[in-house]
């Protein structure tokens, strides 16, 4: 495995792989099992795996955790080595010295769910992902369903702009009690960590009751009550279509309906999502 810190260096390395399939796994580092599962999927689907580690300033709001975002680089290098990564791309900066003049903008898809409270966040994400695609020129790129809105928006970017890259989604990796793994889980105290598992519990409760409630609002109330009982402050709890991200009514809810949640535990903001219908328990036909 090689660590490249400049664009010239990574492009020089990748130039020798003109016949191989290159996969990119974009990350902001502080790697955990969720990221490793993306790397494993990349290894199954491609010949050469590049992991980018870059805490992208453009996607953080003024009052967000850019400065304190954990950057345990030595541990990340070890995790990549153990997972069989070929190249780490770890640039110091990806933007022009005096600021970026031309960037990408997401329309309606960025106004919903996380985008409602994180103005400009998804513009920052698509801009950096586009820059990474242009530098690495991967055949495929892997993104986790943990950030489902991000995955949907990147799929839409690639479709709308006719980009020559295949976007592949990967399942959410969770702790044993269901909490979705996240670099931000390390901000939680022991008590908060106990509380945090109730986010997944609320999603499962809603999923398990989905076919008993014909009214989508009853389901949302059920989830909200569960979170309230555990003193969890909800930023949003919605049931939306996976592609349009528009709220669905129960009568429309098919296999593409998904429950989305963002909640604050103490000062830590956590997100999660789950299909409304538990596809795994459905009989194969
Ligand atoms: P980051 O938060 O580091 O996440 C990198 C990738 O790991 C994303 O695709 C995310 O969905 C995935 N991931 C995180 N936790 C996961 C989990 N528990 N299970 C499965 N996948 C998980 O997302 C970003 O970085 C940035 O926005 C980025 C795309 C790198 C652009 O800066």
- Average pLDDT number: 95
Count of strand segments: 9
Fold-level CATH name of the largest domain: Rossmann fold
Coarse morphology:
globular
Q: Helix- and strand-based class?
A: alpha/beta
Give the H and E element order: EHEHEHEHHEHEHHEEE
CATH top level of the largest domain is Alpha Beta
Radius of gyration: 19 Å
The CATH superfamily of the largest domain bears the name HUPs
Strand content: 15-25%
**Strand line-up across the major sheet:** 1-4-3-2-5-6
Hetero groups: pantoyl adenylate
Low-confidence stretches: none
Distance between the termini: 44 Å
- The helix fraction, in percent, is 25-40%
What does this structure look like?
The radius of gyration is 19 Å and the shape is globular. Helix 3 (73-83) links the parallel strand 3 and strand 4 (87-89). The model has no long low-confidence stretch (mean pLDDT 95). 36% of the residues are buried. It is built from eight helices and nine strands. It folds into two domains: 2-170, HUPs (Rossmann fold, 3-Layer(aba) Sandwich), CATH 3.40.50.620; 183-275, Pantoate--beta-alanine Ligase, Chain: A,domain 2 (2-Layer Sandwich), CATH 3.30.1300. The strands form two sheets. It has a six-stranded parallel sheet with strand order 1-4-3-2-5-6, with helices on both faces. The protein has helices at residues 7-14, 33-45, 73-83, 113-117, 121-136, 148-160, 190-209, 216-229; strands at 2-4, 22-27, 48-53, 87-89, 140-144, 166-170, 233-241, 257-265, 268-275. By secondary structure, the chain is of the alpha/beta class. Pantoyl adenylate binds at residues 26-28, 34-35, 37-38, 56, 59, 125, 128-129, 143-144, 146-147, 150, 170, 172-173, 180-183.
